Amino acid sequence: MSVFPENFLWGGATAANQLEGAYDVDGKGLSVQDVTPDGGMGPITDGPTPDNLKLEAVDFYHHYKEDIVLFAEMGFKVFRLSIAWSRIFPNGDETEPNEAGLQFYDDVFDELAKYGIEPLVTISHYETPLHLSKEYNGWANRKLIDFYAHYAETIFKRYKDKVKYWLTFNEVNSVLHAPFMSGGILTPPEELSKQDLYQAVHHELVASSLATKIGHEINPNFKIGCMVLAMPAYPMTPDPLDQLAVREFENQNYLFSDIHVRGKYPNYIKRYFDENNITIDFAEGDKQLLAEHTVDFVSFSYYMSVAQAHNPEEYSTGKGNIMGGISNPYLESSEWGWQIDPVGLRLVLNDFYDRYQIPLFIVENGLGAKDELVETKNGYTVNDDYRIDYMQKHLQQVGEAVKDGVDIMGYTSWGCIDLVSASTAQLSKRYGFIYVDRDDNGEGSFKRYKKKSFDWYKDVIASNGESLDD
């Protein structure tokens, strides 16, 4: 018998800005993604430029029906997608929403329902409306709380009978490392004070609690979670100072889930705030809101682990990840330098569950790789055994965590259909089970092809994970 629960939610995950395209269709406004053609960590342009692959992405906007058919063929129980904030409120601060944008997601949810696929919706996935960035400096401004709450209330009401599972912010802790992509903060990172950065963090956390409150009032059956970037760290040596470096690194991330779940700022952050002259400005009602409207579950992305040391300058720094860290000599790396650590996923699951004792959801995990489309007697495919190996080993560790007693709601692999990379804005960095004919030059037919991993994942879902031991 499978170790996975009978109601385990198998599926895949995407983000509107990396998937939909149609950046200027049906009244959509610009988002921060439309001015970062080199990826979320790259330079900002004055406006959309032809080299920004996200403008067309893989055109899910016009291909969603055929894509959902393929998801259904794999047996998806859930599909994680985000709503593009600027498709609903083009500038982000309007009073009335854009009906065409609302209707698009109605159509997508109706199509998913035809195949019995539950939507898992991220309310804000690196898609702050560009106007909010330029006019208000993004989440550095408290006014965004009200704009976000109005947006969240609008979609909660519209889709209250179509969507059960919600995430408030994607990788909310990433704002510390990518303030423009994650928080729409236009101030250059080198000029952004820690005071202003952590005040922006506070605004997002309050907004998340407010959205949770609003959502539960609209539909008490909503399951609303937070979403963090999980990255476990190992000490480079047994030196206690290296272990202390690990603790300090991991506390930067735990801060976000601790507040979402426990409803208050933890004691360990107070020393950091004191030593860095940070004083969080709490408006009236903030503490009560955080305390009374905590999340129903914790979701996270997991791609890699890092190592830490008290003297990091003596080691080589890992490549590819958003948070930084030291290369682990015991681990192999992907083509983009992301270290591959299946056991780390089991550790994350156990650490989160021991800490919070509420359900967990793995909503991103996968391998970015350069795929080659090849012709066979049955058509075209990609022989991505490397992806199958990566996912099999990670999912086996998820099974081990289930045996450990961890309550896991589901697993949505990242980029279940090829999309544009968030970190590099490339299409050649592919994650999907479905190959999309489009390249880094913006050329291609957008035709979809099943990779070898398509049938592998189909078998995993059909057997509820039993095939992982074959």
From TrEMBL:
Keyword annotations from UniProtKB, A to Z: Glycosidase, Hydrolase
Please verify whether the record's keywords include Hydrolase.
Answer: yes
The record, for Pfam families, names:
Glyco_hydro_1
Q: Which GO terms describe its molecular function?
A: beta-glucosidase activity
Entry's Gene Ontology cellular component terms: cytosol
Q: Which Gene3D superfamilies match?
A: Glycosidases (3.20.20.80)
Which SUPFAM superfamilies does the record match to this protein?
Answer: (Trans)glycosidases
- The residues annotated as the active site are 364
The answer to whether UniProt assigns keyword Methyltransferase to this entry is no
Its Gene Ontology biological processes? carbohydrate catabolic process
Q: What InterPro entries would the database entry show?
A: GH, GH_1_N_CS, Glyco_hydro_1, Glyco_hydro_1_AS
What family is this protein classified in? Belongs to the glycosyl hydrolase 1 family.
Q: What is this protein called?
A: Glycoside hydrolase family 1 protein
